[in-house]
Amino acid sequence: MRTSILLGCLALALVGWVRPAASGTLDANSIHETVFPSGLRLVVREAHGADLAAVQVWIKAGGFLEDQTTSGHAHVIEHLVFKGTQRRGPGAIDEEIESLGGELTATTEKDWTMYGTTVASQHALHVIDVLGDALRHPRFQTSDFQAEKPLILEEVAEGRAEPEHVVTDVLFRQAFQHHPYARDARGSPTVINHLNLDSLKAYFGKYYTAPNTTVVVVGDVQSAAVERQVRTAFGAETPAASKPSLKLPDPEIACQSPRRQVLETPFDTAFIGLAFPAPAVTTGPDVYATDILVTLLEHVPYGRLPAALRGKVAGLKATFETRRQPGLLTIIAQTNPTDLDEVEKTLRTELQRLIDQPPTAQEIDFTRRQLVGSFVGDNETFSGQAGSLGFYAAIDRWQFATAYLDNVRKVTPEQVQATIKKYISLDHSCTVVLQPRQPGSRPAPPTITTLRPGKGHRS
Prior knowledge:
alpha+beta, Cytochrome Bc1 Complex, Chain A, domain 1, 2 domains, 6-stranded mixed beta sheet, 12 strands, 39% helix
């Protein structure tokens, strides 16, 4: 588990794996960065241990730039950019990459969008040409959208059929009353069903710009050759038309008012989810301490929550994804319906104990070793390294990744305790309970309780 990087976004066509430098770190001295006149940023790490290269394009566009009328635009764009350009007809882009032994992968999230693949290094420059063409000259034709719309809507529906996703989605909607983080990055079915391609093109033209884009290449490549190809494929020598500006929504601290929601679902097991405010990437020390905190809570079999709930839960997950703006720390447990009350009570008791009794230095040291080992493991592949660099470049700076281990090692027990007191409060939390629907019963409306600060829910 690495809480500061979304692991799902890094599952990119792993063609074998290769270890990085012996230290297991992303050495900043091994990374070459170029900022072109267009504002496009290129990050290259030469690593010649295997004949592979990961090529990824990270864009500062996602759910955080959408509103009720554009919800899902980034997700739709993800599906349409590979449908063809003036140079490449329908299906040609996927076929071209597959002929090189790769598989195009794209992911849209709240804070970013990523496109990429991993191929034999001799094909890296070819991949750059394809991605540059696809992301600069997409067709966005009505026929392509109509053909792709059922798949897009199916992905939206799939999220609503996954219990963990449902809990997470409701927690975000509870936690954020105004911020776009409240919305699912997959989008609104209503908006997607009535999507106007002119609106989509305007969104693309506004946000999928060179200053909002970082190309990341890691592997057996030559930096100079990569730079030349990116300059050509992405038109990077053309100066930006105006000074880049990415207007962020007003930040919102999550769970200002504690809220609790109970839902009856068709799932055959029960789930309990808790959420708390979490730091933004710009609050670096709090991010490192929160990563340690989440690892301390969840890491099996030594984490505090699995130990306290042993035999009572079928699964438990604590998650904190570092975000551009203040985000959310979530805890989700799966259990039997008959154990729901006891599990919720135990979760709250353990969290309160964590607030009242600081973790020991030994506990922090052990947890830190687990987190460091997880980060090193995540960066054993070229795609993992590119994902780490690109992820942080999209929400802040790629240097966050190269300095990550040193900063985690500096975190003291006192910093962890201060972070716990700053963000973990039962008076500033959100709660979601999923209960199986009784056979033959009609769906019950959700019950929502807004709790006054200082009057936190007690089970």
